[in-house]
Amino acid sequence: MQLNSGNYNKRVQILKFDADARDSSGFPLPEDQRFIEWRKAWANVETVSGRDYYQAASIQAENEVHFKVRYNQFTKQINKQMRLKLHSKMYEIKTILHDNESKKTITIVARERV
After folding, report:
1. InterPro entries from the xrefs (predicted)?
2. Is the pTM higher than 0.90?
């Protein structure tokens, strides 16, 4: 399988949770702000679905996105406790797929945090 580098044209930040993250005054940051940049990767980004569904009598939007990145020593360490950031949008990792078990690419299925 030949990889076309032109398809990997979005720079994604891979964030990991930092339990000890503090603000400039030394106070702990809120939990959703404790993610710090771990690595960056070039990705092929595909929006899979944009659907609305009703939950607890309110409408929730869910945007599922597939991020395909090249397999390497760092991307193989990505786990579901990490998050992805593309531009100003934050994504929670739902699952990680090792494409065809070929150790060439990984597809990260993520949900946009709304």
Report:
1. Phage_SPP1_head-tail_adaptor, SSP1_head-tail_sf
2. no
